[in-house]
Amino acid sequence: MRRIGDAPAVKRLLIGAALVLSALFLLLPLVAIFAQAFSQGVMVFWANVSNYFTLHAIALTLGVALLTIPICLVFGVALAWLVTRFSFPGRRILQTLIDIPFAVSPVVAGLIYLLLYGRNGWIGNWLDGHDIQLMFAWPGILMVTVFVTCPFVARELIPLMQAQGSREEEAAATLGARGWTTFYRVTLPNIRWALLYGVILTNARAVGEFGAVSVVSGAIRGQTNTLPLHLEQLYQDYNAVGAFACAALLALIALLTLAAKASLEWRASRREALS
Amino acid sequence: MSIRLENISKHFGSTQALEPVNLDIHEGELVGLLGPSGSGKTTLLRIIAGLENADRTTPPGRILFGERDVTRVHVRDRRIGFVFQHYALFRHMSVYDNVAFGLTVMPRKERPSSGEIRARVFRLLEMVQLEHLAKRYPAQLSGGQQQRVSLARALAVKPDVLLLDEPFGALDAKVRQDLRRWLRRLHSELNFTSVFVTHDQEEALELSDRVVVMSNGRIEQIDTPDTLYRAPRNRFVFEFLGDVNHLEGSVHNGVLTCGNAYLNVDLPNGAEELLLRPHEVRLAEQPSDTCHLPVVVTAISPVGAEVRVELEADWLAKPWLATVRHADFERLEMKRGQHLYAHPRQWHRFNEHALPAAQATRVA
């Protein structure tokens, strides 16, 4: 007796199709990026990467990601806690609102921020009077990056916290634990893998974000240029090797992120197998 | 520590989960809250624990532990032990850490030294016979073991009262029996006041000093298991506490008639419904002058201390259940399809309007 769909021909066909498609659409472009980046030798690659403007873009990108992560972490945990541990009018609506950054095109998000916080915007006008500039400066980049990435942590946590329920936290309370102790010793250990996973996704998106950032940054070289924006400028300037060097850097960050995610998943599954 | 509830009620949105309730639980008592699902028993337990707040009413509801008014005291400061239905063990902590949790979160001033904590945890684990599993994680334990860890964890902080929510609900029959016996023994050894919730009548009657029967957010009766079973205050309690046979008919001049069946009763004329427990039905080969209730045996279950016999008749809306001693069973040579006559040893009737609500009369 063979299981349904287990015919050798079907199996080979499906595996073959999967391999060919993955190679064509995933692996080949990745290889091409590195091939292009190193096409004129390691020295030229290095020269492009160690260029002041590129280094500045790298620093800005990583700096924004570094600030985005804690903001999204706190926001995500608080939101997931609110939605899964309390019942209040508007809870459902809030749960839907979380997804807005996913639904809205990042460019639109950037434009809205520009409209609100730009010099001629409603809030921006007032801020300008107090000598505070958000748009076309790093705070603006940070704001739109946070907007675009804020659902990741909450989205990871909500289903998990819903499934786990609040019984363990109630048990901790009956045993005399205070709120912070309960969070630190009971809630956090239960959600830490989902939390890390959310952080990894947030980081990947924060580093790679282009659309929203391109609207609000102004792309001033050496000042408000992030790595993806810098890459695009190099490409427009016909500096293909420079562009691909930046692309290789971004790809490297992505690969590291994937590796971190895979290792987390592996550890989580091993933990599950143990218990 | 005694527990006293005064005028405690609870709404969830527009539904009333608990009508105003007054309840006194004495020091050292083991009290069962018994009722069908949705009767408010778990809500009541969670209110005692402080996991749920009672409604603000006038006069204000109060919860007293001994002389201490805990109505506005947070659950963490009530000094209770709570055993959850599905144990709610901390899944990422070992058995040892689970039991030690309540001690390690104490404020530094009150917290025992780590050596003392260790000694106390192992004493508790020994008491629940799990000291060899101290390093295991909850997922590696059976349901019964998890429940015992959960109990040890609750007892570690030396609670004033122990509250258990369907403590044995998720366990299989054999383990449940063992744990019940074990809890009873533990209770009489340590002599704490405990309240537990159950929907299992047998469990409530076997384990409790007194049982609180609840339905639809109301307390129907509070009594010892013995009184509860012999003198139920109303029809709900009677029907909830065991199998019931119904005899519906109309009374005319002291005779209750129902189709071709009749029974002499000392009751006023009118429609009447009598209730009988299975052991209150005697079976014989002949009717008597005062009682003519012909029945046919339709099913026999000889397993257990008594034989359970199912009876049908065209004058019965629902089949009756009778329990017969094995000796009588053999004497009557009972088999399926056999025609017999039922003789009530005793019957009950509940007139919901008139008082006293319950009567029991002896016949035959």
From TrEMBL, chain A:
Entry-linked Pfam families: BPD_transp_1
UniProt GO cellular component terms: plasma membrane
InterPro entries hit by this protein: CysW_permease, MetI-like, MetI-like_sf, Sulph_transpt2
Main location: membrane
Domain of life: Bacteria
Transcription keyword on record: no
Keyword Transmembrane helix assigned: yes
Oligomeric form and interacting partners: The complex is composed of two ATP-binding proteins (CysA), two transmembrane proteins (CysT and CysW) and a solute-binding protein (CysP).
Function statement: Part of the ABC transporter complex CysAWTP (TC 3.A.1.6.1) involved in sulfate/thiosulfate import. Probably responsible for the translocation of the substrate across the membrane.
Protein name according to UniProt: Sulfate transport system permease protein CysW
Bilayer-spanning residue ranges: 55-84, 96-116, 136-154, 194-220, 240-260
Bilayer topology term: Multi-pass membrane protein
MF term (GO), any: ABC-type sulfate transporter activity
Subcellular localization, as worded in the UniProt entry: Cell inner membrane
ABC transmembrane type-1 domain sequence ranges: 58-262
Keywords from the named record: Cell inner membrane, Cell membrane, Membrane, Sulfate transport, Transmembrane, Transmembrane helix, Transport
UniProtKB/TrEMBL annotation, chain B:
Pfam families: ABC_tran (PF00005), TOBE_3 (PF12857)
Domain of life assignment: Bacteria
GO molecular function term, any single one: ATP binding
ABC transporter domain ranges (all copies): 3-241
SMART domains noted in UniProt: AAA
Keywords: ATP-binding, Cell membrane, Membrane, Nucleotide-binding, Sulfate transport, Translocase, Transport
InterPro entries with a match to the protein in the record: AAA+_ATPase (IPR003593), ABC_SmlMolc_Importer (IPR050093), ABC_transporter-like_ATP-bd (IPR003439), ABC_transporter-like_CS (IPR017871), Mo/tungstate-bd_C_term_dom (IPR008995), P-loop_NTPase (IPR027417), Sulph_transpt1 (IPR005666), TOBE-like (IPR024765)
GO CC, any one term: ATP-binding cassette (ABC) transporter complex
Protein name (record): Sulfate transport system ATP-binding protein
Organism for this UniProt entry: Vreelandella songnenensis
Lineage, opening ranks: Bacteria, Pseudomonadati, Pseudomonadota, Gammaproteobacteria, Oceanospirillales
